[in-house]
């Protein structure tokens, strides 16, 4: 597991090699590196390293490779591709396996590991689409400046998949991010960012009106008028709405996992086709904890441990704290303790409480009010946590820490601002 990340339902206390887990109910522990493969129908890992083809490695036939229509617009990275100017990655064979599987289930999951080049991209800028052009589609996951956007065509939405569904602003960043969108057969939709469900809605109807002539397209439309620039590490499509534990499992697996999927079914092959894209129709704009647990696995297995549910699990003893980490020093649950202060050396520590599972963002400002650092902690479970800041290259002076918690149901909690001093 990544440092500071623990599965839902687990409380963690750890110090000096002592780790106590309190499990509140039957909990499945995914092995790091093991992705969910059930009902996977498209998978692009961008591990080719060169060339103008992105292979579909889902293991479900027929494969749907994507052609990079302007190879000069991309740079291959280690298990990723960097799109630095306008191009598109598109299929030349029908996506019948995607359409058939999703129509059968009336469910869908779109997933990507991406790193945006900038925060001014709109249209929305397409990350992955099953579409014809900017006005006709079966589904799209994209970005509108700092919001993620989901469109899906159903019997109750338009042929453009509108009205679309937006997350709140600020979730698209220039950091490597895991984003996933699920839609189940009851119409319930959830968008997850770094494994947290950040936005939910309902989109009614079914997929019976999908268009079989649409293409799978990434980082743009076929008409190349909705470009997305940045790094793409992984794109996956499932014919099922993954649950929150499965989203979390894929998040833990990381952006570049070792994947050896087994074919689960074979779809009817369709001949190669060519089509002149329909002229563009412009629609209305859319919009650490330092305690560490490590899970190592040599096989893609999930270990399931079942225990008797306990409504309010309480540890019998909490491991002793190191000097300076006495929680009684926190004036309130919205207080933050910064130590050492004055700080010198390599690291500043921030101690705080988390009441519910959430992400934690710590913005550091100087006396001029300029933000000098942003530290983001991935999903943290209720309890005491510690965050670190490397200050080896930070100038001495007075600084202010502003922590914010963001919960899955769109609520936020700001901590009291904390002043501290760095000396050299």
Provide a concise account of the structure shown:
With 424 residues, the chain is mainly beta. It is built from 2 helices and 28 strands.
What topology does this entry show?
Elements: E1 10-15, E2 18-23, E3 27-30, E4 40-44, E5 53-54, E6 66-68, E7 74-77, E8 80-83, E9 89-90, H1 96-105, E10 108-116, E11 125-131, E12 137-144, E13 147-152, E14 165-166, E15 177-183, E16 188-193, E17 196-202, E18 215-218, E19 230-238, H2 244-253, E20 302-305, E21 337-339, E22 347-354, E23 358-366, E24 371-380, E25 383-390, E26 397-407, E27 412-414, E28 418-422
Antiparallel strand pairs: 1-2, 3-20, 4-19, 5-6, 6-9, 7-8, 8-19, 9-18, 10-15, 10-19, 11-12, 11-18, 12-13, 13-14, 15-16, 16-17, 21-22, 22-25, 23-24, 23-26, 26-27, 26-28
Structure, described:
- It contains two helices and 28 strands.
- By secondary structure, the chain is mainly beta.
